[in-house]
Amino acid sequence: MGRTVRLGRGGEFDLIRRLAEEGSLPPEVMIGPGDDGAVLAGGWVVSTDLSIEGVHFERAWITNEEVGFRAAAAAVSDLAAMAADPVGLLVSCAAAPNGEVDVEAVQTGIRALAQSVGACVIGGDLSRSPGPLILDVVAIGRADWPVQRDGAEPGDHVWVTGRLGGAAAAVRAWTSGAAPSATARAAFARPSPRVAEARCLVEQEAVDAMIDLSDGLAGDAAHIAAASGVSITLEATRLPIGEGLEGLGRDVALDLALHGGEDYELCFVTDPGAVDADGFRARFGVEVTRVGTVGEGEGVWLVDDEGPARRLERGGFDHWAVEGTT
Questions:
Q1: I need a labelling partner for 177 at 20 to 30 A (CA). Which of 5, 28, 102, 205 fits?
Q2: What are the backbone dihedrals phi and psi of residue 299, each rounded to the nearest 5 degrees, phi first?
């Protein structure tokens, strides 16, 4: 029988809990609300992701093609979080009819991302918008063994792929009137959903729970903790800070890595000793870093050099708690 997955704390997720339909799900729905995607009979995984001008991006920051690329990447990243192979994208676009937005360029970016992961655009909808550019991308994939958020157990290790905080550093620069570094800009404009990396982890039986990092490590780790009924302790000195963030100062860099969001890396939980970090890096050219452990209790905690572990009361980006651009 289909079931829902417990979400972490936050105004946005409180609202999702209220909006989610109660009662039994149809037998064709294996996993319903609460994970990175819904899982249907036959291993089909479906997810949807909105990208709204003025909330998720500003067109002054990136090209129209990059707008489409990152919108598609965000949706496909949800498939990666469940170790699904992308098959197709359904794209809905609402734009002003005055030609200010080059919709064909946006679609070019979407297609480029889809092709990079072996998928294609299979349909969608086009509408007039009186204001901002709005994209909604539905990603459809297949998984023999969909990975969920609720498999973490005390004693497990917590890992992340890549580096964290780069996209948030770019937004921080733009909103302060500065130009971001090339590395930070690329992290924001052209993220790489870790589809192949996720499939490898599953094939090697090296993952018990997984999520993609869209809202920030602190908030997304909290979803794994809530879904699994455990606590997660992160180690500040182990976090793989994005290139160039060190110049912002330790506290700022750590804050961006924990709470910035839109990294679209993977956070996953494994048994101790299950991950060959050197082999992973050699195969994919992507580093993988152990950043914490799973324990009894609840919530996400941080250990640093300044004293005992402290609970992270602040999670990641919350659309119902923060005004302005992510």
A1: 102
A2: 85, 180
